[in-house]
Amino acid sequence: MAPVFAAFALLVSAIAALGDATARDSQASACAQFAPDDIPGVTVTAATYFPAYARVDITNIFSSINTTDLPAFCRVELKVTTNATAGSFANTEVWLPDAWTGRTLTIGNGGFGGGVTVADLGGIAVPQGFVGISTNTGHNSTVLDGSWAGPHNDNAIVDWGWRAIHLSVVAGKEVASQYYDQTPKKSYYAGCSTGGRQGLKEIQMFPDSFDGILVGAPANFMTHHEAWAAHMSLNVLPVTSSRFIPESVWINVIAPEVMCQCDALDGLSDGIINDPRVCSFRPEVLTCTPGQDTSTCLTGDQINALHRIYADYYEADQTYIFGGYQPGGEKLYARGLVGAAPFPLLQDWFRFFVTNDTQWTPDQFNASLITLSEQVNPGQADAISPNLTAFAGAPHNGKVLHYVGWADQLISAGYSVHYYETVHAFAQENSTLAIDDFYRLFPVPGMTHCVVCFFPHASGGQAANAFGAVSQPAPLSLDAEHNIIAAMVRWVEDGVAPSQIVGVKYNNDLPSNGIAFTRPICKYPTTVRYQGGDPNSASSFVCG
Ligand SMILES: *[C@@H]1O[C@H](CO)[C@@H](O)[C@H](O)[C@H]1NC(C)=O
Ligand SMILES: *[C@@H]1O[C@H](CO)[C@@H](O)[C@H](O)[C@H]1NC(C)=O
Ligand SMILES: *[C@@H]1O[C@H](CO)[C@@H](O)[C@H](O)[C@H]1NC(C)=O
Ligand SMILES: *[C@@H]1O[C@H](CO)[C@@H](O)[C@H](O)[C@H]1NC(C)=O
Ligand SMILES: *[C@@H]1O[C@H](CO)[C@@H](O)[C@H](O)[C@H]1NC(C)=O
Ligand SMILES: *[C@@H]1O[C@H](CO)[C@@H](O)[C@H](O)[C@H]1NC(C)=O
Ligand SMILES: *[C@@H]1O[C@H](CO)[C@@H](O)[C@H](O)[C@H]1NC(C)=O
Predict the structure, then answer these.
(1) Which bound ligand lies closest to the C-alpha atom of 43?
(2) Is residue 87 part of a domain?
(3) Which of 33, 90, 416, 424 could form a cystine bridge with 404, CB 3.0-4.6 A?
(4) Active-site residue (options: 449, 482, 509, 540)
(5) What is the CA(90)–ligand 2 centre distance, in A?
(6) Host domain of residue 26
(7) Which residues of the chain have pLDDT under 50?
(8) Do 172 and 121 meet the contact criterion of CB atoms below 8 Å apart?
């Protein structure tokens, strides 16, 4: 380049940099001085500007982030009154990127977790240009701790059930409108587990809140789900009983036999069962012969327990309660609901939400507690309406994307299918809507519960478990083929519905360890099928 042009180019870029700096300074002061006009029940407690690539190091009891990768944004912290009489409130955050796309993305929680989901506000919302909204749901706690709900803390339970997130969505959209002086053009939601429940609850109660929701492994039938969790525990407990199955037997005896019977049925022995419903696993093969070391085989009582564990759970009168485990997740099932101790969340649920008996223990569970749970329906948390017409029908035309791991160790994948089918049947009988036009389900072969971080000892399973949803490692790309958030936006805004998403499995679920394989995740009821070629490449598979 000739020197004079080089000097000119330098000058131009210096002016541009100056312009950027000016824009940044004005954005920074707009953030620091942000004082929204009266939003009823809402006060701003802090507003902090983070320039691009600044360190964002935020930790609360539920979620944390520590990164220098983010584009510039303004972090607004809110106190949202949920019941003025009771003095109850939620802590909510709204993260507003400088490079806003005009969209909002509300992020849900997990379990009983009470803390703003900062990991996904920074991991998903801000880098993809969304205003991110998330709340502590009205209390501060870890995922497994429900003691804040007692004694008789009804306002806190209702806040967790639906109120805190609803009021936060309303507040967050208003904050965005005032900050940018522009109404958000579209609003989205993403969450897994309790987060899945929160999304379904919001569209059932307030169909206009979101244009599209992404729900993973939803805990949207709490009154039945916790009963099922107790039932699962009692299938094997107490540890001293003849039906108890030690973790080592799950891992070393049952898991390999399940793979032996089920894995190759889909044409590929890869440790992934594409559709576990086509395999009827027969544990009898493992029956101990006289004198055999019982750490290598199963007794009759253990085999009977396995039949109950893999079966859907019905009451004596054939009322459907919940799904059962699917073959394929055995390595983690003892860390799920059939281990040496009942899953802690279930005890707190019955103690603090249902019976008000702080001494209640899971061995006291019986079917009458299902009826009681339904009568109380704590916090109106169940979100099981099959009638999504107000959300999905004209003029709103909302969309639901739902995913679940077939190897989920905490919420039966079969229940996800069950809920989808109730919506399907309702739509067929009671509306002119075709399910495929508003609700698509993506079961993920081999994937465990929501993949990461919520629960101790979790691992993502042998599965293409990273595709852009909450609490996952980063997707392979942010485009709509690999990133389910982008697929949701494209469906809502361009009318292009996803039939598959290409997921990635990283070695040990860490992107820095490199890619193990990629694979399509198929829309239910299609299944991924191997066509030949490199089994580590998504292009060797089709959905059909
Ligand atoms: C966040 O990362 C920085 C740099 O690695 C480190 O100095 C800091 O202690 C970390 N914060 C937390 C809470 O771990
Ligand atoms: C608000 O809290 C008060 C006091 O706990 C309670 O009596 C009332 O029912 C609550 N209102 C709602 C709408 O939850
Ligand atoms: C939750 O923690 C925040 C931050 O420490 C605190 O301001 C708030 O009062 C707590 N909320 C409740 C309901 O205790
Ligand atoms: C437990 O207490 C809550 C709040 O007072 C009440 O709504 C619920 O009915 C009680 N449950 C039982 C089984 O008494
Ligand atoms: C079922 O459990 C409830 C609560 O623990 C208890 O009050 C009731 O007596 C039990 N019913 C039977 C039939 O054991
Ligand atoms: C479904 O819900 C809509 C409104 O949410 C209601 O108008 C309609 O009557 C319901 N359909 C049936 C069959 O209950
Ligand atoms: C159709 O709507 C009616 C009235 O709400 C309901 O009772 C029925 O169960 C619905 N049909 C299906 C298949 O869900």
Answers:
(1) 3
(2) no
(3) 416
(4) 449
(5) 15
(6) 1-32
(7) 1-12, 453-457
(8) no
